[in-house]
Each structure stands twice: as structure tokens, then as C-alpha cells.
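Internal tracking record. Fields below are filled automatically when a chain is submitted to the structure queue. Please do not edit lines marked as system-generated. If the sequence contains nonstandard residues, flag them in the REMARKS field before resubmitting.
Queue: standard
Priority: normal
Entity type: single polypeptide chain
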Amino acid sequence: MLKKINRQINHQLAPNHTEKTTIRPVILIGGIILLIGGLILLIAGTGTAAFIGLIIALIGGLGTILGLFGQ
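SYSTEM-GENERATED OUTPUT FOLLOWS
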């Protein structure tokens, strides 16, 4: 009886099928491309183009982070 209860408690506390965080390659590649493109536009452009480059770079950075660490 105790062995059965012990197995149930161990199964609840430490299940065998732990989920690992995986890298999402599509989101990661898209984020890197947006990040690089936004930085190029930010450096090369002036005024409105630089502002758009900043926004694109921020979205690319967010996509890169989500691609690496998101679930």
C-alpha cells in the first residue's frame, strides 16, 4: 500500500515527460532578418526612415527573443 502511494506522489511531483523549451527556427530567422534590416535602415536613414528602422529593429529583437526562449 505504501509503495503504491509513494509511486503516485513521485509521479505527481516529478513526471517523466518534462517539456523542454525548443527553438522555433521560423520565428528566430524572421526576427534576425527584421533586426538586421531595421538596424541597417536606422543607420542609413534619416528622419522618418530612421524611426521606421527603429520600430522594425525592436520588432525583430522581440521576435528573436521569442524564437529563442518562447514556448
